[in-house]
Amino acid sequence: MEFILEQGKQLHANCTTLILPALSIGNVGQLSTDLLISSLKAEKIGYLDEPSILPCVGNDAYGVGPEGVLALPLEAYDSCSDSLSLIQQRSPVVQGMMSEFAKNLANFAVASGKKHVVVLSSLDSARRQKIDLSSNMQIYYLSSTNIDGTDSDCEKLGWKRLQEYDPAQRRWKYLSALADGVSMQEESSSFEEEDVLDEDYYPSLPFAALFSCCKAKGLKVTCIFSYCSEGDNISDSFLLAEASCKLLGKNPYKSNGNGENGWVIPYSWRTMYGPPPDMSLF
Q: Is the pTM higher than 0.85?
């Protein structure tokens, strides 16, 4: 992975917290990152050239002018006033390359002076084991602070640790070994068989590799989740973006002179789900 600075830009030493998405159902992590970049008025400082990411290119996701700025697969942003860096990932990882991608990203985070990595991701609501109807809590988390994945700061916010996390489970152990540079070829081949256990599902998701590799590098890692289904997941993206701000003590309502609404909707969202239906049909 190679980091390319844009002309005239620089890395900011005070930006020691990194926020990034882990691709999952509904692309909620990416939408939340878009919302944070737009609302915090983060400055694009460069991009990451990573061979394990599928190539893509598109129009500027945030600007409304005709400057011709292109959006690339893996972009880096800094919000100096909030001491935050953000990475936006716009295309998926090549199949079978997730562990390599996570290792490269963890190495970049360490090399650029990051101390805390916040991973935003969604989870399939069809796999939700238990729904607590007595609570409005919709955020789950996983932290490297303690061995069992708990974190007192997250608990104070009323969040619950991801129930399915078990560091002694075989695939979580496999990911930890990979992150530490230990080869486990026999275990790797067993995960490619048809009889993969249901308990292997969560550690097979992208967030798990990012969590394990960043943790192995000595970084503090906090994964924030919300359950959702495919469809219009804008409301879920607001939920994750707000959760990350609460965790980090940031306030988008006061960031860079934002107005009463606080959040700044990315320009690219105008066409995210296509034009409204033709009302003459009804």
A: yes
